[in-house]
Amino acid sequence: MIEAHRHTGPLVIRTALPAEAEVVAGLHVRARSTYYPDGLPEDGFDWAARWGEAIGRSDGQVLCAVRDGRPVGVASFRTPPGPPAKTVELLQFHVDPGHWRTGVGSALHTACVEQWRADGRRSAVLEVRVDNARAQAFYARRGWVPDPENPPAEGGHHLYLRYAVRSGE
Which residues are CB-contacts of 45 (< 8 A; sequence separation ≥ 6)? Predict the structure, then answer.
């Protein structure tokens, strides 16, 4: 069951802080568990440690959507290894389920695109689970399309999407 939250304060998008890794990990797990019908599989990852590493990486960035002093959305992206350097990879994008349909995801996506544009990126890529219709619809509304360079594997669990980062939008 998704708990509804009161949304009182303004939404602030900023770089995640190392001290927020555990809170961000909890948000990540809550969001991911919504699209696994049998519950989130035990993956053995220490998500707080992984988010701490992501926040500290020099080749990437983690943005947080913060309301009332608490992260309610998170996006992690980096420049993938190898060419093309004008592409950025969106690794994680989650909104706490209690904050769905409140504009958090839209604001966070807009902040990502603004950062990519400022960094001179021309395209972005991501993977989304084939059974995550909510995320696929979110991305499609923002202009993400199937990546022609990475068609889905037969029986695969992920779709690959691409986004054109246009200058001056």
Answer: none
- Alpha carbons 47 and 30: distance in angstroms, whole number: 12
User: Is 118 inside a domain boundary?
Assistant: yes
Please give the pLDDT value at position 59. Answer: 85
Q: Tell me which residues of the chain have a pLDDT lower than 50.
A: 1-5
User: Side chain identity at 101, as an amino acid letter?
Assistant: R
Is residue 106 domain-resident?
A: yes
Quote the radius of gyration of the chain (alpha carbons, Å). 16
Q: How many domains does the chain have?
A: 1
Distances (CA, A) of 132 to 18, 105, 158: 29, 15, 9
| Residues spanned by the domain of 67 | 14-164
**Which pLDDT score, from 0 to 100, does residue 72 have?**
96
The answer to whether 94 and 54 have CB atoms below 8 angstroms apart is no
User: Is position 44 within any domain?
Assistant: yes
Q: What is the CATH number of the domain that holds 82?
A: 3.40.630.30
Q: How far is CA 166 from the centre of its chain?
A: 19
Quick check: helix, strand or coil at residue 101? coil
In a domain, 160, yes or no: yes
